[in-house]
Amino acid sequence: MTPANPSELILPDLPALEAFGRLLGRQAAAGDIICLYGPLGAGKTTLTQAIAAGLEVPVDQPVTSPTFALVHEHRGRLPLFHLDLYRLGDDEDELLELGIEDYLHGEGVCIIEWPERLGALLPARHLEIRLAFPAPPAPTTGRVIRLYHRGR
Ligand SMILES: Nc1ncnc2c1ncn2[C@@H]1O[C@H](COP(=O)(O)OP(=O)(O)OP(=O)(O)O)[C@@H](O)[C@H]1O
Ligand SMILES: [Mg+2]
Fold first, then answer.
1. Which residue positions in the chain have pLDDT lower than 70?
2. Which of 51, 53, 87, 134 sits CB 3.0–4.6 Å from 142 for a disulfide?
């Protein structure tokens, strides 16, 4: 169920999205879980890169989508666990084998692309971010972002 009044941000271009992500990374605390929803190419990985910059992940640790490993770990001011579950099967055992619980309940910041795949394993308390393309004729470099604080 989606509450009626999320925070909505209209980000006119890529630098605006990157500035938002860096801000989020600077504010993030140990144990935070950030779920990124949105269609292919919406900017989930791009936003993760900006959050990583705000978490002071060194530039020599590039943040790329962990499509095959499913999770990448980076060391910034806090550990960053970047999960991309797009290719995950429906098998909950696969998630448990991945050690998902250690990431979700660990001392780092967890960013999850395609969190729908977690089903009941997704902790109630998390920040939900929904990325969408603006309606035409707005330029496709813009994004609309909706934020929901879940479980608090
Ligand atoms: N305002 C913007 N915000 C985010 N990305 C943008 C923006 N404008 C243009 N782009 C471009 O759109 C692309 C977004 O790709 P990205 O890999 O981040 O999407 P994704 O949501 O992670 O996709 P996937 O579901 O395949 O993982 C990038 O090439 C990025 O440079
Ligand atoms: Mg991605």
1. 1-5, 90
2. 134
Instruction: Specify the pairing of strand 143-150 against strand 71-75.
Output: unpaired
Angle made by CA atoms 56, 50, 9, in degrees to the nearest 5: 130
The pLDDT value recorded for residue 140 is 87
- Ligand 1 proximal residues by C-beta, below 6 Å: 11, 13-14, 17, 38, 40-46, 65, 113, 141, 143
With beta carbons less than 8 A apart as the criterion, state whether 69 and 100 touch. Answer: no
| Predicted local distance difference test score (pLDDT) of residue 3 | 56
Angle between helices 14-27 and 44-54 (to 10 degrees): 50
Q: Which atom of ligand 1 is nearest to the CA of 38?
A: 21
| pLDDT recorded at residue 65 | 85
Q: What domains can be seen in the chain, in order of their start residue?
A: 8-150 (3.40.50.300)
